[in-house]
Amino acid sequence: MGDYLRPRGLEEALQALTRPFTVLAGGTDFYPARVGRAVVEDVLDIAGIPALRGISETSAGWRLGATTTWSELVEADLPPMFDGLKQAAREVGGRQIQNAGTIAGNICNASPAADGVPALLALDAEVELACCDGSRRLPLASFITGVRTTARQPGELVVALHVPRSRAEARSAFLKLGARRYLVISIAMASTLVEVEDGKVKAARVAVGACSPVAQRLPALEQALVGATVDAHLGERVAPSHLAPLSPIDDVRGSAGYRSEVALVLLRRLLSKVAT
């Protein structure tokens, strides 16, 4: 085994990252990927850094600490705009995984089927990265660059995600299809956040996962929803053409054509759900 470090402070962790380390938080992706073989890389375990954990409200919105677990998110006192993210959190593996797996770990692993990503995209989340020279933020859509790849640079550490406040009443929801109810990789999933004013859609954000190398927002659908009456018919606004940004593949869980059909059905159900 290589070196193993478990710093107690953020500065110590950032200093360690001046040389290459594999960053470990909950380990729910790290360990299954190494079953049957020795861990040879140098490991930086950030789970013991208090500054990276917890959810706090700010003047601009909410800060989700990088090592906040999915269980902690579900139990947090948050407004309805986070309902979709909480619904996604309950789909991340089983309860044991939710108790250990972290929000930042989910985005840094950058799986096309990462359950948390569509809901975080719908929340317009930003990723905060820090290094010894300072910090920066970038939209989550720019952070995940491909399958298992991100924009994190050598020496950087994801320290938090930031969610802005909505301008109006906000509702959100998440739906996922898998081969069974729990402990399954998504065939397709979708999340939305709808801002409502005077019974109509003021703004909308819609994202689909497991149907392209990176979860995608659907701008044409978002624009088509603006001004629509928020009722049980809202889902009828979804048209096949709105799914143009997606590029589903054939694999053991489903064909590309099936994924496209599933995504369309999920979106229609999702918008009817959030409307009612």
Features:
globular, Enolase-like, domain 1, 9 helices, 14 strands, 276 residues, alpha+beta, 26% helix, 5-stranded antiparallel β-sheet, 4-stranded antiparallel β-sheet
Task: Provide a descriptive summary of the structure in words.
With 276 residues, the protein is of the alpha+beta class. The chain has a domain at 169-275: CO dehydrogenase flavoprotein, C-terminal domain (Enolase-like, domain 1). The protein has 9 helices and 14 strands. The strands form 4 sheets. Strands 4-5-10-6-7 form a 5-stranded antiparallel β-sheet. A 4-stranded antiparallel β-sheet has the order 11-12-13-14. β6 (126-131) and β7 form a beta hairpin. It is globular and about 55 Å long.
Architecture (CATH level 2) name of the domain at 169-275: 2-Layer Sandwich
Distance between termini? 54 Å
> Which strand order do you get reading across the main beta sheet?
4-5-10-6-7
Q: Sum up the overall morphology in one term.
A: globular
Roughly what is the average pLDDT, rounded to an integer?
96
* Proportion in helices: 25-40%
At the first level of CATH, the class of the domain at 169-275 is Alpha Beta
Main sheet properties: 5 strands, antiparallel
Q: What share of residues are in beta strands?
A: 25-35%
The number of strands is 14
| Broad structural category | alpha+beta
> What is the CATH H-level superfamily of the domain at 169-275?
CO dehydrogenase flavoprotein, C-terminal domain
Rg estimate, integer Å: 19 Å
CATH topology of the domain at 169-275: Enolase-like, domain 1
Tally of DSSP helical segments: 9
Encode the helix/strand succession as letters: EHEEEEHHHHHEEHEEEEEEEHH
> Which runs of at least 5 residues are low in confidence (pLDDT < 50)?
none
